[in-house]
Amino acid sequence: QVQLVESGGGLVQAGGSLRLSCTASRSIFSINTMGWFRQAPGKQREWVATIARGGSTNYADSLKGRFTISTDNAKNTVYLQMNSLKPDDTAVYYCNMGIYWGKGTLVTVSS
């Protein structure tokens, strides 16, 4: 069993930045793929970004260049750096590691 706890969400103006963190309750070194998803009000959950154990990353096309996913294995943490935020980025952001999900952190971008 792995518990995932997200943090770093909040209210930010359009054009601003936030860094989300997701800390796991055990070592993430052996986890093959970690990612972030988001769910905007009234919409389905969508994939944001993924990082593999070897460090390769993938992003939703619409977010390339603005979002960056990274990990710190020593801290059992995966990050999502979000820059140039837009109101459309408003959503609950969820961390995913295999079959495990966090409870989400709310990001609100005001215009």
Detailed description of the structure:
The chain contains no helices and eleven strands. The chain has strands spanning 4-7, 10-13, 18-24, 33-39, 46-52, 57-59, 67-72, 77-82, 91-97, 100-101, 105-110. Strands 2, 4, 5, 6, 9, 10 and 11 form a seven-stranded mixed beta sheet that branches. By secondary structure, the chain is mainly beta.
Structure summary:
Helix content is 0%, strand content 53%.
Order of helical and strand elements = EEEEEEEEEEE
What would the average pLDDT be, to the nearest integer? Answer: 95
Specify the number of helices: 0
What is the end-to-end distance?
40 Å
Task: Explain the layout of strands and helices.
Elements: E1 4-7, E2 10-13, E3 18-24, E4 33-39, E5 46-52, E6 57-59, E7 67-72, E8 77-82, E9 91-97, E10 100-101, E11 105-110
Parallel strand pairs: 2-11
Antiparallel strand pairs: 1-3, 3-8, 4-5, 4-9, 5-6, 7-8, 9-10, 9-11
Tags for this model:
111 residues, mainly beta, 7-stranded mixed β-sheet, 4-stranded antiparallel β-sheet, 11 strands, 0% helix, globular
